[in-house]
Design goal:
Length: 425
Amino acid sequence: MNKLLFLTGISCCLVYIAFAQTHPRQFSVAASPQAAGFSAERLKKVDSFLQAAVDKGLAPNAVTFVAHKGQIVHYKAFGYSHLENRTPVKKDDIFRWASQTKLITTIALMMLYEEGRFFLDDPISKYIPAFKDAKVLVSYDRHKATYETRPAATQPTIRQLLSHSAGIPYDHPLDSLLFGGHGFSVFPTGEKSSLETLVNNIARRPLLHDPGTQFTYGFNTDIAGRLVEIFSGQTLADFFRQRILQPLGMQDTWFYLPPAKQSRLVELYALPALDSPIRVSSHNTDRHFALSNTSTLYMGGSGLTGPIGDYAKICQLILNGGEFNGVRLLSRKTVDLMTRNQIGNALVWDRNDKFGLGLQIITADTHYGDPASPGSLTWGGAYCSEYTIDPKEDLILLVYTNAMPYAYYGEFVRKFRILVYQALN
């Protein structure tokens, strides 16, 4: 048997065993790190690393959340929410989550899956006709503004959306040709912009490959968010609020922040190179989108903002097998399904990892997960936030800052993970 497939199978078994043995928990503050299975002395390395990143101008701030067996062992804030006026960042400050939104959208769609609204292998076009008769891009000529397509071998499915194997990217080589103009944006404009309009725009672009043959990260989860709207008859924002955020007590998580919460949004910074000074981002849309009072575009792949403590509830819910603090959103069997490899022999970029439904699965041969147990689950956001869920160790760990572009991203999140694990007794 192929070694990678064998080890991946072991990883999936580890996940299943861990979920079967885990009892649903809410959070409690550990009496001490030692009481929760950590070395207090070795945890100081986490503090030193994050404080040094702030002091050296490599990060504007950092907020952490680490819980072992439901006990919070590291929940701290470092640096400044606004460097210019030296405003200390607080643990409950609000960050842009970007692609961490994807897991919440996946949970929403899987809640509807449990209600019998669809099968995972249903073609997208069954519910969104714009995807009917999907084509695959064969070739294109930028200078002649021509391109060639062929029919897709199969039609993209909902399973492939949630595993990023449908062939739908973010940036597409035909964007300027199909939509015209310079600086093309797939996003609809105007006060009445909607997820429906965005998804119909995405459907105009040919796939980059046959569905199910590669891992291609892109607008997949935004399309999944549109499916939530179709199946539920609600906007994605209303479904989130009523079915997920309010039941879990995530009162500070929003697509667009109410006025009373806007002052808690941290500034967005940019560090394009390690030897460049950190500065306020020049991308005003990224800086200010969460402050809109009129937008109706709810991006299921990237749109949410909130504090780290809110997202920790989502991580613990997954670790608990679909329940948190007495609120069950998913069955443990659905969570088990979400954590199985869904991309076959394909790999997540150069990470040597697999992907389930909305979750990256760290393998025994990972090039990214470092000391995380095989079968651990992870993903992050473009503004530099990341979580890891480790069922074997009954552990969640999150670290947040907000910077883009961010040359220090990889070191920031991976070294944090290494330092948390080295402190685990």
